[in-house]
Hints:
The chain is an alpha/beta fold. The chain is built from nine helices and 19 strands.
Amino acid sequence: MQQVDVIVVGGGLVGAAIAWGLRQQGLDTALLDEGDVAFRASRGNFGLVWVQSKGLGAPHYQRWTRASAEGWGGLAEGLASRTGLACGLRQPGGVHLCLSDEEFADRSDRMARMKAEAGNHGYEYRMLDAKEARDMLPGLGEGVVGASWTPYDGHANPLNLLHALHRAFVGAGGRYVPEARVTAADAAPRDFRIATPAGDFAAPRIVLAAGLGNAELAPLFGLSAPVRPQRGQILVTERTTEALPMPTTTIRQTDDGTLMMGDSHEEAGFDIGQDPAVMAAIADRAVRCFPWIARLNIIRAWSALRVMAPDSLPVYDESERFPGAFTANCHSGVTLAAAHAGLLAPMIARGALDAGMEAFSARRFGSLALAEA
Ligand SMILES: Cc1cc2nc3c(=O)[nH]c(=O)nc-3n(C[C@H](O)[C@H](O)[C@H](O)COP(=O)(O)OP(=O)(O)OC[C@H]3O[C@@H](n4cnc5c(N)ncnc54)[C@H](O)[C@@H]3O)c2cc1C
């Protein structure tokens, strides 16, 4: 039995960011991860560090997202200095393109409400008419009637981020344990014992960050994580000399010059297949936004499963029955990586979530959460 200060279950972006943050707090941390058969949103996502559409009707989520976007530069610098790996972070601002007057009206309304809800925390944005949008993004199609813009948005290389988090964690003395699927646990307040095929671990604290796996794990610890899979498909083009100066909600240019296009929101259970009709719709919208994209070949395409709570917001919790056990789930693990490493991990290291985190508790789902627990 290996005794550590804290066990983190799940080595995707959420678990790895939290484990890195806990290690930086000086905690002896074991990061237990399933094998390669696992569903891994962290290896199939779009790579946006995105603020502008996050948290309508949930200003606490808007602030959490903003705080993470603001902390991302520090996270990337810290990881680069320790690992030599660049996360490719760029935060030039971002736009959401509207292809009809109706879309533009909906977007204007949404952005105005986001600003109102932000109160004196502030929320800077502009609605751009077609000409302004064209000046900002050369090559925009005639069908684009306008766009919303905020200065907060950006993007990064999510695979490098995952790699850098793991490398930094292990380099700082963290214990990464692959092939360690957790299926059962002995849980008591501040006393958790886990047997895995890769060894047995005990700790006074445990963080469940197993993505979709949390739905089954959380009840073992008196917690609830009513998350479901939601499929997203992504297309990647060959490299191009055309330049996209900033990311849009559905099209971004990587450091290599390829374009990523996506992503869909499909209720397909655990099916990670691809649907040609959805792929065609993604490509069609991209070409209407930027007609020159039609000249490019698609060289890769995949689908992956988001980790979705019923209201799409993150779930962070501490067990009332077994203090010391925490959950962490979200559908924007790239964007929130800095908050997970720099804000959430210190709370867990201190032994309790801050009072302001109560709004993220699965208790907000009431009887739904209890039924699923
Ligand atoms: C198509 C798509 C596009 C996206 N685009 C963006 C974007 O642009 N920006 C953004 O911020 N986010 C985006 N996301 C979301 C982001 O990818 C996820 O929020 C993030 O990857 C979730 O990370 P995770 O660690 O919770 O889950 P995962 O990456 O799924 O990792 C879960 C880990 O837990 C392990 N595990 C599971 N069960 C167990 C168990 N019982 N025992 C041990 N280990 C276990 C698995 O091995 C796995 O490594 C996108 C997602 C998708 C699918």
